[in-house]
Design brief:
single chain, 48 residues, mainly alpha, 1 helix, 0% strand
């Protein structure tokens, strides 16, 4: 029962975090990635 409770609790917490991120995304919805029309290029991408 404890394991099921923990899983349910983590799912609820995750849903709450996703909901908050969605609401923040809606607040800043008028921001565009290509506002100036400038293109950014790079030769390589290093991910550590």
């Amino acid at each position: 029962m404890k394991r099921t409770y923990e899983r349910l609790l983590f799912m609820i917490i995750g849903a709450f975090i996703a909901f908050c991120a969605y609401m923040v995304g809606n607040i800043d919805s008028d921001i565009n990635a290509e506002d100036d029309g400038k293109l950014i290029e790079c030769d390589y991408l290093s991910v550590l």
